[in-house]
Amino acid sequence: xxxxxxxxxxxxxxxxxxxxxxxxxxxxxxxxxxxxxxxxxxxxxxxxxxxxxxxxxxxxxxxxxxxxxxxxxxxxxxxxxxxxxxxxxxxxxx
Length: 94
What we know:
This protein has two domains: 1-40 and 79-94, no CATH class; 42-77, no CATH class. Helices cover 48% and strands 10% of the residues. The protein has helices at residues 18-30, 43-46, 49-54, 69-76, 80-93, and strands spanning 7-11, 35-38.
């Protein structure tokens, strides 16, 4: 029979805190997850900060936002340096 693989999508739910990321990975490991998926991106490659602010008052839900989409994405970035540390942390779970 084929092996079942469970993948947990942690994505950017670490709140820019590597300790939180490791806690999430540990919880995944304890719950029987086979592997985890992270998102690694640079906000500057996905969205434009100037575009948000150039809209001005639009009469839409954007007017109520306290920060731009860029700022939200920037907070959600997983630094590239974390990937190797995350891989090492996963290897400890084997």
